[in-house]
Amino acid sequence: YAATREEGLIILSEYNRDPWDVDRAGANQKCCDLLMGHVSKDTGNRVYNHKTLDELKAAVELVE
Length: 64
Description:
The protein has helices spanning 5-15, 19-24, 29-36, 43-48, 53-60. It has 64 residues and is mainly alpha-helical. Helix 1 (5-15) crosses helix 3 (29-36) and helix 1 runs parallel beside helix 5 (53-60).
């Protein structure tokens, strides 16, 4: 299922990471938006592009 913004924030706290670190590490932009709590203004991105919890965790794990 698609991850929510709240779940993204929980993942960040579990890894003790800052969302901007994930962005700087080159993670997928949709993952970064979810982890930062942003909602896309682009209909295609908002409606059709969903990320799973595993994809969000993988994005956070890019930070060394």
